[in-house]
């Protein structure tokens, strides 16, 4: 999970949007109060507190994660737990279905990254392209309140499908941290 969080939060981030009854800046106590029926698993990744639980989102078994920095919600999202027995074609279909739902609410910008363009523009080969790591499917949304990243990419040999929402304060923090690297 650490690598997934690192890869998702570094390139794309922004600010405040409701996510499952929560607003960016809310506390862990508020999360527990707003979801008394949920038993959260608690952990730590990269110095941040992570609370998550499993749920179904769009009919897919999903890990729902809430990530806190300095006791404030800064990042939240879905990691779709698509079983390895689900075909790559089904995963691409699920990605498109989630994309349609996101695009009804936000104007997502397609940022697919093709590392090998042999099958670009040939949807019947998208699952193969993912398995060969020829492509990372990604779309983003950014405004003054929130950054949303929806992606389907191969990570360490596994296809990872996720949607993450990030706060503006966290975006600023990450940009300043990246600037300090140079």
Features:
single chain; 182 residues; alpha+beta; nine-stranded antiparallel β-sheet; 5 helices; globular; disordered N terminus
TL;DR?
With 182 residues, the chain is α+β, with helices and mostly antiparallel strands. The chain has helices spanning 2-9, 28-34, 88-105, 126-131, 168-180, and strands at 41-45, 48-57, 60-69, 72-80, 109-110, 113-114, 135-142, 147-155, 158-166. Strands 1, 2, 3, 4, 5, 6, 7, 8 and 9 form a nine-stranded antiparallel beta sheet that branches.
Describe the SSE topology.
Layout: H1 2-9, H2 28-34, E1 41-45, E2 48-57, E3 60-69, E4 72-80, H3 88-105, E5 109-110, E6 113-114, H4 126-131, E7 135-142, E8 147-155, E9 158-166, H5 168-180
Antiparallel strand pairs: 1-2, 2-3, 3-4, 4-9, 5-7, 6-7, 7-8, 8-9
Major β-sheet profile? 9 strands, antiparallel
First-to-last CA distance: 27 Å
* Strand-pairing-aware structural class: alpha+beta
What is the CA-atom radius of gyration, in angstroms?
16 Å
* Integer count of domains: 1
